[in-house]
């Protein structure tokens, strides 16, 4: 991967950035995404944010070598600390856990009032992001699930607005599986959740063999409910 050719994961993120946007890439690492977008004239300005010294220096070097220092501002700081209110209209956060992404959004929530779009790519726990979006009046406008190098990733695209669930759709299923993904139910989606069910069933078998306790009982009930929920979606031909 380089600034000319992104990974499939980052290419998917890139295609949802608004044309000509001023955007902030949080956790930018080598600033590959900002450099790619500016070199292709797909964005007008970018912030590459990093909290760790090593990746921050790598991003600075990359931007300087590409001759993009006037168009990409590399900044060191925690999450949305690197962004000023009204400075960008699009934010990308990719390659982190869903809980961490939700935490970054929560801590920087005041910076989001002028942002038009969020493009979020969690490595795990997309559920945490969907819950945050719902509670903070951001609506999903698109989702995509991809596989690269044996790993499965979800990309969530959100804009300001209230998330509304269809009457026939289980809200818990929507938050866990994603409204767009569970409707499409492509092969990668089915592969991911079939694997998750098998993993949950293995855990459930171990819990059943363990000594009884209130905590054990609660975990078993939660797993049984999740297995049932996902199996119902996978088997439902009307979705």
Automatic annotation (TrEMBL):
Pfam families noted in UniProt: TrmK
Alphabetized UniProt keyword annotations: Methyltransferase, Transferase
Xref: SUPFAM superfamilies: S-adenosyl-L-methionine-dependent methyltransferases (SSF53335)
GO molecular function, one term: tRNA (adenine(22)-N1)-methyltransferase activity
Entry keyword annotation includes tRNA processing: no
Superkingdom, taxonomy of origin: Bacteria
Entry's Gene Ontology BP terms: methylation
InterPro entries linked: SAM-dependent_MTases_sf, TrmK
Record protein name field: tRNA (Adenine(22)-N(1))-methyltransferase TrmK
